Amino acid sequence: MTFSHSTGTRGARKPGRLVRWFNGLALRRIRRRGGRVLGMRLLALTTVGRRSGQPRTIPLAWFPGGEGRWYVVASANGAATNPAWYLNLAARPDDVEIVVDGETVPVRARELQGPERDEVWGRIKDSASQFATYERATDRHIPVVELTRRDTAGS
């Protein structure tokens, strides 16, 4: 399982305080009711901090990948660097859980590569045009991550 960690030389500003405030509201809504915020399907992703070892939770837009699979994008609004949650996933891809549609699900993370990534990325941009805007804002290769339900009995 490989994560690319690519960074760019240009990009939009990373999300600031207003986005962090909004994320707090979105997390409360996801935990209470699940579902959508501003028309986007959101999940709450909990990773383990790669340096701190502490749980870190963030709301993310998700895209369907079939039974027991969800896709998320490490766009950081088109910033030149990857978001912290992506780096946490890269460090501990098997120590992840999501809350989606009111259900807490242990998952395993895998960054998509090559034609598989390109196909899913195209579908994501078709369904949510802001991701094409993020792609134009940076020269970084924006990671697409597949989250797959983990069998808790076998983990």
Describe the structure.
The chain has 155 residues and is α+β, with helices and mostly antiparallel strands. The protein has a single domain (17-149), classed as Roll (Pnp Oxidase, Chain A). It has 4 helices and 8 strands; from the N terminus they run αβββββαββααβ. It has helices at 17-33, 84-91, 114-127, 130-137; strands at residues 36-37, 40-48, 55-61, 63-64, 69-73, 96-100, 103-111, 144-149. Strands 1, 2, 3, 4, 5, 6, 7 and 8 form an 8-stranded antiparallel beta sheet that branches. β4 and β5 form a beta hairpin. The longest helix has 17 residues, at 17-33. It is globular. The mean pLDDT is 86.
Give a concise summary.
The chain has one domain (17-149): Electron Transport, Fmn-binding Protein, Chain A (Pnp Oxidase, Chain A). The protein has helices spanning 17-33, 84-91, 114-127, 130-137, and strands at 36-37, 40-48, 55-61, 63-64, 69-73, 96-100, 103-111, 144-149. The model has no long low-confidence stretch (mean pLDDT 86).
Can you give the mean pLDDT? 86
Strand content: 25-35%
Instruction: Categorize the overall geometry.
Output: globular
The third-level CATH topology is Pnp Oxidase, Chain A
Contiguous helical run count:
4
What does the largest sheet look like? 8 strands, antiparallel
Oligomer: single chain
The first-to-last residue Cα distance is 16 Å
Spell out the helices and strands N to C: HEEEEEHEEHHE
Helix content: 25-40%
InterPro entries: F420H2_quin_Rdtase (IPR004378), Split_barrel_FMN-bd (IPR012349)
Organism: Isoptericola haloaureus
Catalytic activity: oxidized coenzyme F420-(gamma-L-Glu)(n) + a quinol + H(+) = reduced coenzyme F420-(gamma-L-Glu)(n) + a quinone
Pfam family, one: F420H2_quin_red
